[in-house]
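LOG
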Amino acid sequence: MDISIFLRENKYIVKIVLDQYEQVYRLSANDVTGMEDMEKLVSEEFLKKVWMRFVDMSKDFSDAFKAVNTL
C-alpha cells in the first residue's frame, strides 16, 4: 500500500493506494494537533481494516466486470 498524508485547505488528507484502488480520508486540521497525530491515526489496526476494504473492493469490481463481460 502506498500511503500519503497531505495538508490542503485546512484539511488533512490520508490517501492510501493499492494497485488500481484508492481510499481517501479527510479530517479537519482543527481536529488534530499536527502531522504526528495523523501518523498515529494510520495505525496497524487501521491499516488492517483498510486492507480488508481493498480486498472487498477488488472482489466487488471483479464480480461486476465478469457480469458485464459474460452477457
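LOG (cont.) second protein
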Amino acid sequence: MAKELEAYDMTRDEAADKLESLAADLRGDGSFDVNVNNRTVHLAPPEEIGMEIGVREMSSLLRGSREAFTIKLDWKPK
C-alpha cells in the first residue's frame, strides 16, 4: 500500500479538534476509518500500539524560524 499524506493549514482550535476526533476513534471499538485526500482507509489497531513523538526546531536566514511537532502511531494489523 502506498503512503497517503494530506497537508493543509488550519487554526490551533481546528488542529485540536482533529486530534480529539482521532483520539476518540482510537478509544472506540477497535476499528475506524480515516479520510486522507480522496481516499478512505479502514484502520484496526490492536490494544498495544507503538508511539513516537518528535519535536524539531529549524532556523534559516532565508525562511526564518520554524517549529515542527510530529506524532506517529504504528502497529501490525491483526
